Amino acid sequence: MELxxxxxxxxxxxxxxxxxxxxxxxxxxxxxxxxxxxxxxGSMDDEPTAISAVFSESMxxxxxxxxxxxxxxxxxxxxxxxxxxESKVLDAELFNQLVRPDCLFEVxxxxxxxx
Length: 115
What we know:
This protein has five helices and four strands. By secondary structure, it is mostly helical. It has a single domain (about 5-115), classed as Recoverin, domain 1 (Orthogonal Bundle), CATH 1.10.238. Helix 1 packs antiparallel against helix 4 and helix 2 crosses helix 3. The protein is globular, with a radius of gyration of 13 Å. It starts with 7 loop residues before the first helix and ends with a strand.
């Protein structure tokens, strides 16, 4: 799959499926953060790097700020992530940067920028 050949709605569907491969709608936070950390880390290291760990934590913070985490703080509500894509609050580019070599990660939405 060529990253830059898909239109944004298709990319959003790809990322939603990657984040929720079993179609659970509410995905355990640990599953999402582990997935994001591993992609941010890449294949060169067996253990989390400082950058990959911070990226994963920053994404969780962003999801919390955007009210995409359940009240009990155990799950990411994927229907809310999807709604954020549809309303353009979140952009697929947030996730696309994970597959670029030598990318400096930027975690942000229209409403928030996580440092």
